[in-house]
């Protein structure tokens, strides 16, 4: 399996800080390598960097990215582009073709409005149901189905906090 | 498969309105029957009611619910309770047992802090990875895995807007 990196577009700092942070943390927890943010938002960068430093792994976050340049560079390097949109092909009909991609995947996660150009630039426009819900859910289900659930058992290197699964209450370890 | 209803707790109107709306819309899109909100928030109720009226189906939303009463009533009626928490048993190890439940499921989705009592009241404390990410992602993956992906093809009755899946651009129908 190649690398998976998220490109978050349409983020507005005054409105989307929490949702974009959830997008980034979801990406990290489910095995993506990092997130490019096409906006200037130190708050999101700090929240995610803080989680990585305490919970481990090597997830990166980079803001002030030009989405056009990011997509162009990704494609020039041979990577493919998935755009999550409720208007796309429904996941059950799309996932097989995406799993066959030999190479890295850039997964575009938009906020409310997305520039029309994105549809044409993407190799796959994919819907996680054609209903309105949440870009966070869409990303989560996409990543889970792409990895066929294996990413749910990831371990993160150099973690300072570890949760030990427990049927009742909380069991954490600090290192 | 029995009914699935969400109980959203720990919601604070000034902070959680968007996230709780995403929780409700995710629940609806992925086949849950409704959401109880243990808070007073007309804004969330209106957003979700508006989506249901345009996009169809019978999803209900009810605010000002007492979580204690809600859980007690659910159990008294023979239903089981799943609590999504990063401290619980990881989903791959829990989902089999939950699929065997014969009856209705109440799925508790907390915000940042959850009363300790909830862990003891739940029949299953379930983590979607033991990493910090998003209650929206956790609910999405839980519902998707519970229904083994079949809910991604749900159709909603009496919809006034329908999206027709499309490899490029947008194709919607108004009725």
Automatic annotation (TrEMBL), chains A, B:
Keywords of this protein's UniProt record, alphabetized? Cytoplasm, Methyltransferase, S-adenosyl-L-methionine, Transferase, tRNA processing
The chemistry this enzyme catalyses reads: cytidine(56) in tRNA + S-adenosyl-L-methionine = 2'-O-methylcytidine(56) in tRNA + S-adenosyl-L-homocysteine + H(+)
S-adenosyl-L-methionine among keywords: yes
GO CC annotations, alphabetized: cytoplasm
Q: Which GO terms describe its molecular function?
A: tRNA (cytidine(56)-2'-O)-methyltransferase activity
Q: Which InterPro entries match?
A: Alpha/beta_knot_MTases, tRNA_m1G_MTases_N, tRNA_mtfrase_aTrm56
The UniProt record lists the EC number as 2.1.1.206
The record's Gene Ontology biological-process terms are:
tRNA nucleoside ribose methylation
Record's CDD domains?
aTrm56-like
Q: Where in the cell is it found?
A: Cytoplasm
Sites where the protein binds S-adenosyl-L-methionine = 84, 110-114
The reply to whether Transcription figures as a keyword in the UniProt entry is no
Main subcellular location: cytoplasm
Q: Which domain of life is it from?
A: Archaea
Query: Which protein family is it in?
Result: Belongs to the aTrm56 family.
The record's function comment reads: Specifically catalyzes the AdoMet-dependent 2'-O-ribose methylation of cytidine at position 56 in tRNAs.
Subunit structure, interactors included: Homodimer.
* PANTHER family for the chain: TRNA (CYTIDINE(56)-2'-O)-METHYLTRANSFERASE
Protein name in the entry: tRNA (cytidine(56)-2'-O)-methyltransferase
Q: Which organism is it from?
A: Methanosphaerula palustris (strain ATCC BAA-1556 / DSM 19958 / E1-9c)
């Amino acid at each position: 399996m190649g690398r998976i990196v998220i490109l978050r577009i349409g983020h507005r700092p005054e409105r989307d800080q929490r949702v974009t942070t959830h997008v980034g943390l979801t990406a990290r927890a489910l095995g993506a390598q990092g997130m490019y943010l096409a906006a200037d938002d130190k708050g999101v960068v700090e929240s995610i960097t803080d989680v990585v430093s305490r919970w481990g792994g090597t997830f990166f976050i980079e803001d002030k990215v030009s989405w056009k340049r990011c997509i162009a560079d990704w494609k020039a390097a041979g990577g493919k582009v998935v755009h999550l949109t409720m208007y796309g092909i429904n996941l059950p009909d799309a996932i097989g073709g995406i799993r066959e991609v030999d190479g890295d995947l850039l997964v575009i996660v938009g906020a409310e409005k997305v520039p029309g150009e994105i549809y044409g630039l993407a190799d796959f426009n994919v819907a996680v149901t054609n209903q309105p819900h949440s870009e966070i859910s869409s990303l989560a289900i996409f990543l889970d189905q792409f990895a066929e659930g294996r990413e749910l058992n990831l371990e993160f290197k150099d973690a300072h906090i570890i949760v030990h699964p427990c049927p009742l209450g909380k069991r954490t370890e600090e290192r």
